[in-house]
Amino acid sequence: MGAKHIESWDDERASGSGIIVTLRYGYSFDTTHDAVMAFDTVREARESTRRKNIFACDCAECVTNQGETEMTKIGNTEYTDNEIAMLRAFYSTSMEICGACDEDENLSYMNADDLLKVLGGTKQSIGGTMSSLEQKMAITDTRESSRGAKTNDWIINDEAAEFFNAEQ
User: Fold this and answer.
1) Do 17 and 84 sit in the same domain of this protein?
2) Which of 14, 73, 101, 104 fits a disulfide with 94 by CB distance 3.0 to 4.6 angstroms?
3) Shortest CA distance to 128 belongs to which of 63, 30, 35?
4) Residues 133/120, Cβ–Cβ less than 8 Å
5) Residue 124's domain spans which residues?
C-alpha cells in the first residue's frame, strides 16, 4: 500500500481470515490502540484505512516503537527489533524442549497466545509481528496444533533458526 500509516496488507481470504491490515506504530483504527483489523472485502478495507478514519495513537507501545527502527539482517531480509524478539522466542522454545533448532530438529511450536505470554504487548501487536514474519517467510503456520491448543501453532523457519545457532 502507499499510505504511510499502513505497515502491511495481507489478503488471507482464501484461508478464511479476511484481509488483515496492520497499521504502523502511532496509528490506530480507534482510540484504544487497535492497530490490526480484518476485513471481508477490499472496499471495506480501503474505506477503513483512509486517513480520515485512522486515529493517532500515543500509547506506551506506540511511543516506544515509533520512529526509526534499527534493522537486523538475516540472509537478505531485514528484521525489526520486535521481529527478532519474536523469532528468538520461537528459537528458545525449541532449544528448551530438545536442545536443538535446525532443519533436523525444530520443536519451536508456539501460537499467538504463547507469544503474548512470553513477549507481552497486545494481541494486535503480536498478530501484526506474526503477519510480518510470515510475509518474510521466517515463520510458518502449521495449520494445526499438535499440542491440542485451540489456535494453530507456528514454527521458526530454517534460515532464521540458523541465525540464532550462529550466535551460540
Assistant:
1) no
2) 101
3) 35
4) no
5) 72-167
